[in-house]
Design a protein that fits this description.
- The protein has 89 residues and is mostly helical.
- The relative contact order is 0.04.
- It is built from three helices and no strands.
């Protein structure tokens, strides 16, 4: 009876050791996968993201175009006068 208990205990300890090794191995693989995903996500949505650059450039261009299109009242009046002169001719 003692021999049977000893053998059964040994089998349980060996099985527990094997399962612990597999859990540790899987945890390390999962950790590497998470690190890879975080790096990919950072590249996709971070500094190298085309969408982010596109939105930044769009804002800058819109501001520049708006600043170019803003005329002083004298410029607007002069442009209207030139347009009226061209229509008269």
């Amino acid at each position: 009876m003692k021999l049977t208990n000893w053998i059964l205990s040994l089998i349980i300890i060996i099985a527990a050791g094997i399962l612990c090794q597999q859990i540790i191995s899987n945890s390390l693989i999962n950790q590497q996968d998470k690190n890879d995903y975080a790096e990919l996500n950072s590249v996709k949505y971070g500094l190298l993201s085309i969408d982010e650059w596109k939105s930044q450039v769009t804002e800058i261009l819109a501001e520049e175009i708006n600043s170019l299109l803003k005329f002083s009242p004298k410029q607007v009046h002069r442009n209207k006068g030139e347009a009226l002169m061209e229509e008269a001719n």
